[in-house]
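Incident review: delayed structure delivery

Summary: a single-chain prediction request sat in the queue longer than the usual turnaround. Root cause was a stuck worker, restarted by the on-call engineer. No data loss occurred. The affected request and its eventual output are reproduced below so the record is complete for anyone auditing the incident later.

Affected input:
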Amino acid sequence: ASPTTTVDFTRMIREQKTFLGSFVFSREQFERAIPLAQMCSPEWVRNLSFEEVAGQLAEYADGNFNVVKSALRPQKTA
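Output delivered after worker restart:
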């Protein structure tokens, strides 16, 4: 990835384009994050089936963040 780029926002607006980004860790950051991730409680992450998504989103909307991260696992059955 290049550190800079140009974006034609006029075209994005007129053509109703979506701008999507992501973050990539450096190898050093990733290596430092591994021990930290191992200290996290497994209860903070929940693997969801399609059937469970609406319920988890409702919990977040109600302010319940006991589960910090949800991951959609389509192969998981409810």
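Verification: Strands lie at 45-48, 69-72.
Action items: add queue-age alerting; document worker restart procedure.
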